[in-house]
Design brief:
The protein has 118 residues and is of the alpha/beta class. Helix content is 17%, strand content 34%. It has helices at residues 16-25, 75-84; strands spanning 8-13, 39-42, 47-52, 68-71, 89-96, 99-105, 111-115. It has a 4-stranded mixed beta sheet, with helices on one face. A 3-stranded mixed beta sheet has the order 1-3-2. The longest helix has 10 residues, at 16-25. It is globular and about 40 Å long.
Length: 118
């Protein structure tokens, strides 16, 4: 038995609609036509979702220890738009092995890195 791919990624969030709106409005993700209860799934591959916390999970610092990387075809433009909207930029844009790269903080404190080279 072997794992062959990452199939689904979800982030547990404090406010589902706020998180879903952030990823829709600021990152341009599109909601999938169907989402399970207590979650919003986006049309991405692999599947990406935000969901309310599972029972018993305390979300004191939900983004702590998580590294999420997303690919963009307009990394610098996305950075500029997020910065102009007051979204906290954790790492300023730089050119590295993954192309133009920067990191921002989402509403729940997840550090999300964006890059433009596949």
């Amino acid at each position: 038995m072997t794992i062959t791919a990452i199939d689904f990624i979800s982030l547990q969030v404090r406010d589902l609609e706020r998180a879903a709106a952030f990823y829709t409005d600021h990152l341009g993700l599109t909601r999938a036509s169907f989402s399970p209860p207590h979650a919003v799934v986006f049309q991405t591959s692999p599947a990406f979702a935000v969901r309310t916390a599972l029972p018993g999970v305390e979300l004191g610092h939900p983004g702590e220890g998580v590294a999420l990387w997303l690919q963009s075809d307009a990394t610098q433009q996305l950075h500029d738009e997020l910065a102009a909207a007051g979204i906290p930029i954790v790492t300023a844009p730089f050119d590295g092995p993954f192309g133009r790269t920067f990191t921002f903080s989402d509403p729940d404190g997840y550090a999300v890195t964006v890059h433009d080279v596949a």
